[in-house]
Amino acid sequence: MRKKWKQQLFVYLLIMSLIITLGMNVQPLHEIKQTATPIPATALLPVPLPIAIPTQSPNPEPVPEPVPPAQIPVTVNVSEEAEATTPSQVPNPEENIEEINIEVVEEPVHTYEVTAYYLNVRTEPSAKSKIIKVVEKDTLLQVTAQTDNGWLELKGEGYVHGYYAKKQKDEVSILSFSGSNDDAAVSIKSTADTAVAAAVPQVKKILPVEEPSEPTSIVASDSGLTVEHITQIFDGTELAGHQLEEAILEIEDEYGINAYFTIAVMKLESGNGKSRLAKKKNNLFGLNAIDGDKYNKAFSFETKADSVRRFGQLLSKHYVGKGLETIEKVARKYCPANSNWSSLVKKIMKSDYRKL
Question: Model pTM greater than 0.70?
Fold first, then answer.
């Protein structure tokens, strides 16, 4: 132990002597940089110093625990414009509600009864438009408007030709509301005194349009034929390629002349489009071909389709319009010289039906 203390004392004395020696040769800083003598490397050797071991304090001061983020106070600078609104400043939503004016518009809905045995309902007011369904005779239809060319616009969807529907006496009006309220109730009133709360008549029966109707002896009826059907019937004959399909359906919708009947009379009178009148005068029905001078007295037409339209007009005015509603009755006036005319027409109609 004493030896250790002697060694430490020797080291201290050595350090003190070095300090005294160096202190005697102290020079200004700017002179030291110019005349500084290198210190021997041996003088820079590390000197062992006593190591002080820290001891634990008997009463250590407590270390503050970290504050959770939720408990850290946050100072927020709120500007005058962003200050909280007091209850007295909260806007009243009722003050900003705009007054909505609901206008009651009366939409008349008329009731029509179908008079044809079968009536096509089409997508547009035209005989060339697509057939979407077929309704039977005595069916009640709701009609909202009538076009300039005589078509009736149905409530909901579709058009039918007005020639085949008869307006009923009791009309029905629907009150609709125009405005932003789409859920407004709809009121119904009837002009009939005994039907104030009566419901709007509904369509009695709708037939699906899948197959054309089977032909009958009734001239004023709906065939259910389309342009594609008639094109198939004309295939392989001289009647194909003359745009007759649209004209045939046009007179069916406008005058009620069954398309099967029109095609059969056309085939019989023109020899399937091969007759002289058909080729030279575009007369497919022998119209005004009076005995004795048939060719010269027969009507001439610019196109074959024009002769179809004239046939529809004549049948509607002078035959069906006068009560001749069957093929047998039409035959007695149309071709009295041929007693087999009606049976030949019906035979062609059945043959065409089987082709489809």
Answer: no
